[in-house]
Amino acid sequence: MEYVEFIYLADLIGVAIFAITGAIAAPGKRLDILGVMVLGFVTALGGGTIRDITLDLYPLVWVEDTLYLYVAIVSAVMAFIAARYLPSPRRALLVLDAMGLAVFAILGLQKALAAGAPEAVAVMMAVITGVAGGMIRDVLTGQIPLVLQRGGELYATSALLGALFYLVAIQLVDEPSPWLDISAMIIIFITRMAGLVAGLRLPEFIVRGHRLESPDEARQMENREP
Length: 226
Known about the structure:
This protein is 69% helix and 0% strand. It is built from 9 helices and no strands. The chain has helices at residues 3-24, 33-54, 61-64, 67-82, 90-114, 119-140, 155-170, 178-198, 215-223. The radius of gyration is 18 Å and the shape is globular. The model is unreliable at 215-226 (pLDDT under 50).
């Protein structure tokens, strides 16, 4: 398989994965199939759209190649149907979200570099491409975005680490290769899953003398009558 074909296939797989996460985030939100399709679409293509608009890259990828649009819609519909027969998808959502994050972060980094963006900007575009779709999904379904949650362990951080690994590794090889891309994606996925399983997280901002509230205590404070 040619490298260009690998990138194209990986991009479509990432679209399908994120579209599925958009669809399986819908249970309990009383969305009809059209709502699920919209949710899958914005989850799958939202991050890349923000990246391309920021970098002034037109036409947008899903406008130029409508296969992206069809993959997102079909994947969301399939997940809509499957969710009727499968148990609660919360765990699957987290795993698929980590997979989509890994794929989109590295592909977003590569597209930014190909567009001539400085390395620091390219890393930012990698993180945005990886997390923005999930943020849109969570906002539309009335959830605090995973990247902002206390307990949303190493979400954007994993995309950042994978992007930095890729930038260092690409200096040591003659040319990009599928194995380099896959290695960077695996780093992101493993880091994210390690955060979820082991509860790893970055240090939190704490003011000396102030007791850190537990999530249950915080919810009780929010629900307390003024």
